[in-house]
């Protein structure tokens, strides 16, 4: 589906145009065309390929989807794939946007994503001075929007991690913690797959040797690079903390287990002593003088209770109870 | 065994030729020859060495097999070894294909593999415009086919991992999980040995300085590079997840153990109290008034049951039972 | 808030100036202006942007705060973000200082930090020979001050780690140790985020190719680089030691648990033997000759005590008690 | 001890020569001299130093032994140290061979090794076309022989690892497994110390910038490089697998422990119930009607057995027994 | 304190000179001056700074001490900091030596160290041919001496590790092992901090681009580099082995624990059966025919013993006892 197809000149919108008129507008020296597709069909992409002269491998990637994020040069053209990560009921949905950027056109094709880039277009149109820089600036604006949407997800992760950390030293919560830690690790993998390859490849658009269309926007892409580096750093820290938390959780289980064993041992000892003493006075020897005593029974009970209390205090002191 | 020996010109098949005629066809300026061998004998390889002027070290590698995947230049010629990974009854079979690529010939030698590349040849012959690019494109087509066959194996791994993950927090499944995780790790090693060295060496065929025969197909090899990077990324994620899962599994065993110990402790305590009380009333003191009471026995039973229930409720509340 | 706004020439302070006069002083060939802001508002930054011709992206970073430490070049200007890490009641507060350095000006904007850089300015003014080197030297002085404040935090960490290590082999302290180790790991992350990106980027100000304003201060920045490398090395060692300590702590829990189990087993055995013996002499067989013996009872007690002692000594010997 | 001292020309052996004649033969433009020493004394090395003009640091290394494998250039000369790893009764013996290679000589000094390189010399002499390439080819032949001897050791490791893996999920074998895994890790370290530094340094003899004497043998050294890369890959995989196996082994111990605890808990419960019931009917209350019943005793036994069976079935069902 | 102050020419000692005469001797074209300081005061260093024209940052580093090992160039001068690691009663003392090397002088300042470099000076003076190479060679001699003193420390570590390994599979030694492993890890960190940064920076004195004063001694510094690489390799292996040993130790604790639990379970079962049987015959039913039997008691004892033996043999067989 074609969402928008607009021609711009000197940073200003000229007109919404039909796809058939693209060639006409591309011919104007200072104009550029910005087309946005949503879940494009093979036919639509084939048409765009003809209009803009796109490379077949890039078109195939945009059509098949499920690509790794990447920035590739095909001659004058730059082809960018980014992951769109959207939280949705405790899960992260991963969509994709493929962007073809030429000297005088930008074509974006979005897939499996609910949230569009209309706001990006509007913001660009409000700043003609920047938009005047052309297709490179549009790519920056799109990329900046995609990357900015990663930050709230990092915050989700950090909130979840803090939630787990609050309970990590709480007895009896080990099972829940470990499940949540495992799920969180999974989620961080999703975002890392979105951010890390992009970071790695972004050097192509700033720094050393960049394509002509991006020379004047280098500092903007460095800014995106910087954001991605921050996101990657946060993910690494979260993942490292998860690793430590899993270890700590295991330690806490072992410590709890150890305390249970001690308590068990202590009570077992107390009752074992009581039972052994009762057993002794339950023996059937004929000559057991204390059995004949008037206060033998209360004395025996007293002895048993005394022994139990003695042990109890002892165990208390060493911290087993 | 020689599977095919075909001469091509301008992207079109000229003829199936005999191995004796190879020299004749190689002499034609625009023709190239594509030979496919299966489990070649030393003699067959020696003959090919003479026809195409192959380097002895490359021939030796193709003959001995069990090589690491690699891409090597011998003067004008490029020598490529790839692993063929085929799932077979819960196991992965690893075959090999060695490809010699010269200016005007391609020679592939397949070993220990059930699935051939006939489909690749047919697809190439249906696209003369691409095949016209010559030997470099044929190498791409073969490489692309090999790498594409790695994807279903990644999916197998992911399915297996998901199967394990569904049971990882299930009490009593730890033993099975750990065995499956260990086996899965083994399997990922096999695929990693196939994909990682290839990825590392593929930079020789695109990007900076590439051999003359591959200049026009650079973008295709970058595409293969991209696929391999995706495969490597997936393997790394799977292996990382396996590591975490093994740790989590150990935690679950410890948690279960801890719960068993608590339950054991609780029941032991309940019966220890009962036994101790019964033991006390089983003592043989002469003066134990309650033994003479009419309802002493039911009262004693009641006391024992009451004590047991009290403990039971207590343990329930703290979650030990 | 504007803290200071001073013009310097040939290493000497000329005057406290108003922000309106900045342009006037910048016009003097050998003068430079050093402005210090605290928690600057958007308006103040906008004014500075106009006065000094700052890049919008850099200004935006300084305004939003929460940046990753970085050193970026915008044309002639260098933009630096550093984290200020200040210990505060068992916690580390992280502030930020953004520094814009041009050929003839330095503008620093500090946020969320209690401790200022007045001392740095005073020390610079006392050494005109160094201050004469201009804006580059001022940046060095600020950076040196920031980095020097990291060292006491490293010492805090090392003291805390030593405190934990003293108790790590002490029975019964596992729970406290693991909590402290986990918290310490968190704290080291904070400092690492401050120091590591700076170290990585400092190469831009010394070594190979440095901006013109920093050529004469290269050796000073290398010195800062060296300090940061030392800090990073210390953090890495602390983190590595924390990892080992967590493992060792788990081992200690397991060892303690093992010892408790042995002790439990030993006492359980001693009382089980006593109870079993008492139970036997409590059986109601008619013909049990020893029950009739005059000293049967003391003999039985003796036998029980003897058996218990025997076991006790045995367990002592093997180290279970 | 001098094993051999032979002069070659155009790939053919000229004569066994005395050490005194070396200078004479070195003077012939196309000849080269190949000397092999075993456990050389300081005097022998000093003599060789004079004959061939060896660098004192290299001679010192060859004399002292216990070097790290390395490839060093001293002006025109290349100095190579390789480890010889020989299996010997469950242990790996590590010998050393130092090789000095000049434009027209090869001097090898072997230490602490049982197996010589006579076979290498014979094979070289049988292939004059290759030997004609001179000292560089001889170095390749020696290096290839050394590296080829690492492969059977890898196979030993893999066999040992498979042997352990067969028992890793077998109850009761944890102690033996962990000892064998620890020993195997040690052994892999030995081979890694032999192979890894060599791999790292081999780039000096092929690829970019190589010494004059090695230009024509580049492809041979790349082949050795490839073998070493394969060996290193195998070692890494084995070490990684050992790491996982140690973790898995620990998990298996924990799982077994958990099962033992459950079984213990189950039997303890069954007997605790029996004992408690018997204790109740052993109480001495006067009014306990069931004690008077004719079939009270068998009924009581029946009740006890019934309760025990009930529990037994219950535990069976939940898998504790 | 000034230990020595000597002028050399053409590799020969000219005279012990006073610090006031340094400038005089530096003026002679072929002479160089070698000064050794021990725990120098601020005044002494200030004097040296004036004599030799040292850079203030380097002097500050030498004065403050507690630097990271490093090799820095200040114009013509090279400034080197090395750690001196000396074993002292189970601990490692870390001293420091700072060396300033100029075209015609060497100044070494040693701190917190007991063992001097007098031997190095003497050895240098005995070899005029080498000493003739000037200041660069003196630096090599000092560095070589420092690094050579690391080797016995590695041997200490290896001996300690072997001592632990001998006991690692010994039941009951887990606590001691883990303490010793933890301490050993600490010690290796100390040496690593001494060796690793030096190794990393030594590339500045050999290989690519080296300062003029070090061109003729490149091969010597490469030799030091090689020694440091060996030391680093050994440390890495030791640390890796410690990691594995800690894991193995934990496994051994778990295995021992598991065996204790089994043994405990077995004995508990044996006594529980005895007690239950005795309890049954201790019940007070009126009709219990076997109680009336003449040999009922011995028969009961026999039954109990028989049951116990049966269990004992059973447990023996499955390896629990």
Structure at a glance:
The structure is a homopentamer of 321-residue chains. Chain A is α+β, with helices and mostly antiparallel strands. In chain A, 57% of the residues lie in helices and 18% in strands.
Account of the 3D structure:
- 5 copies of one chain form a homopentamer.
- Chain A is 57% helix and 18% strand.
- With 321 residues, chain A is an alpha+beta fold.
- Among the domains of chain A are: 1-131, CorA soluble domain-like (Beta Polymerase, domain 2), CATH 3.30.460.20; 255-317, Magnesium transport protein CorA, transmembrane region (Methane Monooxygenase Hydroxylase, Chain G, domain 1), CATH 1.20.58.
- The longest helix of chain A is centred in the last third of the chain and has 64 residues, at 218-281.
- Chain A is rod-shaped, with a radius of gyration of 35 Å.
- In chain A, strand 6 (91-102) and strand 7 form a beta hairpin.
- In chain A, strands 2-1-3-7-6-5-4 form a 7-stranded mixed beta sheet, with helices on both faces.
- The interface between A and B is large, with 56 and 44 residues.
- Chains A, B, C, D, E: Pfam families: CorA.
- Chains A, B, C, D, E: InterPro entries: CorA_cytoplasmic_dom, CorA_TM1_TM2, Mg/Co-transport_prot_CorA, MgTranspt_CorA/ZnTranspt_ZntB.
- Chains A, B, C, D, E: Its main location: membrane.
